[in-house]
Amino acid sequence: MLFLPSVHFAARTAFIAMGLIAVTRADPTGTNPGFESGLTGWSSSNVQIVSTKVYAGAKSLALRNGFIQQTFTGLTPGARHAVRLAYRDDTSQTWILSDARILIDGSVIGAIHNGQDQEYLVPGGFEFTATGSTATLRIESLDPGQEGFLLDEIRIVNGGLPPPPEHAWSTLAVINDSRGGRRLANGSFEDATSSPATDPDNSGPAGNPHLTGLALPGWRVTRENIDLIESSGANPPQGSKAVDLSGHGPGGIAQTITSLQPGAVYTLSFRYARHTSWGRADMTGEVFANRRRVASLVRTISQTWNQSYGLKEIPVLASAEGKLEIELRSTTIDQGGNIVYDDIRLNPGGDGLLAWSTFHGVTSGLEADDDGDTLANGLEFLFGSDPKVPTMPPVLQAGTLRVPVSGLARSQGYDLKLRTSRDFATWLDACTPGSGMTLLSDTSAPGTHGERLFRPAAGEPRLFWRHQLVAP
Hints:
The protein is mostly beta strands and 472 residues long. It has helices at residues 352-360, 377-383, 407-411; strands at residues 2-10, 13-21, 43-45, 48-50, 60-62, 67-73, 80-89, 98-104, 107-114, 126-129, 134-141, 149-158, 166-168, 173-174, 182-183, 210-211, 220-223, 226-229, 242-244, 252-258, 265-273, 283-289, 292-299, 310-317, 324-330, 340-348, 396-397, 400-405, 415-421, 428-429, 437-442, 450-456, 464-470. Strands 14, 15, 16, 18, 19, 21, 24 and 26 form an eight-stranded antiparallel beta sheet that branches. Strands 13, 17, 20, 22, 23 and 25 form a six-stranded mixed beta sheet that branches. A hairpin with a 7-residue loop joins β14 (173-174) and β15 (182-183).
């Protein structure tokens, strides 16, 4: 951002107005991103420049089972960037996916596994944080043979991946059945998609569209592409459509719900089943809430859509801003089909301790101490602290003990009891006669994070205290 001052004079008084002008920073610089000059600017091994099946211009790169590498300049240290590229499968073997991975400065930031061979995929990209003003990009094949991906228009751009669409809680449809809740925007995937003939993010075919970008109404496809199954053969439990998160490779979808109660627990639920095709191996997936993994999924050959759709319920937490970004991903990298989803909903309420524990990636045991700071996870839950980052217990400051209390924990029926002692043998509840401790104020409440302020009695020569979890 650039501030340009302008000076105005009136009645012998000078006023300085600051004009705010946005300055767009140029994307990092690379050489020959579309291979129109052959391999100029790239180091490589076992690749080939081709002039058929190109994405843009007159040439593209056949990665085969080799690699390409180039150092880009002009990055902003500490800022988010993304690798963008166009790719398509170029194997002659039906039902075989091509595989490659993307590295920045030797660290893997993503992988592509896809079998789409009709046209190029141009997904959102692969995020990373620049450690300096330069970055070495390497794309290497994971295929053993001489066939693999075709690549074109490889770039590094400023900024992270585009965010998913946002939908206010009040706009979601209320479902009045035994399961209840509100269905996510296009949560049963019935909304019409645009035509493959007019939408570059819809590769078709008609009746079985494979989608990327924003081609699935209400959602952003976050990885690869997905398969919208429009036939009744998938036996969708709601409506006539369902989503297979592996279009031609492991895809994902996301949307964000806004205007939720900040920090509150909700229950995400959906129906899911295994695709009937693609062999008999298990199919797997993951669920993320506000970019934290909250569930790993498996559907076996005995759990296909021909048997029944299972119901999955996951307690999740809204952010402090009252937002919840929900993402479902396929993690099956060697099959073109995956778990099929339908009827995705969100209900207020749920198991707050489990949601908190899952969000932080710790055991839900109240006595566990994952960060080894002597504060059990149950107390960390009550304090609202991070159970994976060592935390100091509340200490006396200026004669006052300030104890944070989580509104989420209180809404779940948990509470905090402060107890005092002068000899470590006899313990009294704080604020009771003879305890030597007075409660000054309490701003906490169920659903409202606050703090309790205590003060030791004047002239108290020695007083110890400890915090005790009170479970519902």
